[in-house]
Task: structure prediction
Amino acid sequence: MEIIRAIVLGIIQGLTEFLPVSSSGHLEIFKCLFSDSIVAKESLLMTVVLHFATAFSTIVIFRKDITEIFCGLFQFRNNNEFWFSIKIILSMIPAVFVGLFFESQTESLFGGNLILVGSMLLITGIILLLADKAKISEKNVELKYAIIIGLSQAIAILPGISRSGATISTSLLLGIDKEKSARFSFLMVIPLILGKMVKDIFSDEILTNETTFLPLLIGFIFAFLTGLIACKWMLKLVKNSQLKYFSFYCFILGIVVILLFFNNQFPCQP
Result:
């Protein structure tokens, strides 16, 4: 059962981390559907491993970009790589601020509040639909745009708001080039994921974790491989203006979740 759980969690994490359908929203739904059988048993260590897997898949795909960014940052030269790294840092500030000063408030949102999840999925659907119809442009990510995109990433902490969907859609609505929008969206989240992992590693729950090695390895492999596929797929979807299909998916899922909640169809409901 642990192996099956690890496979399910790995696939969910790998797909929803990159596709604009909200990984947090899907996990909240699965927690309610399966109660204590699958997702609710996910340990903090498993969460760290799965997030590392998807972060690693991003690093693999954008390894050339990341190398150029690091070289530009530490050479302190007035070049594109240096300023791109500054934009990445600026984009992180809103999410870091929320994480540091509103951690307890945001954690309280992840308690099976399916009305919130369903509503946020509908908002994600609207954002994706608007972005899909955005005019074609070749703008670069400017400093002011990096901050605005960072604000959308901070808002995406809400369960049901897709992080990739929010950041890419914001970029497209600002008139930024499609490929540059997707590239910036995926690169800007890597430092945040790694930072959150370091914080979680030193928590008491990690030290008392009882998850065995094999499920962690299986979960990592499936999240990594699924993440590679989903990330490459998402890059093509953005380039070809096909976000509307995920918009329809979010609309349908959001409406279904809300209807099922009002009809008391979720096991987690009192």
Remarks:
- The radius of gyration is 18 Å.
- The mean pLDDT is 83.
- The first helix runs from residue 2 to 18.
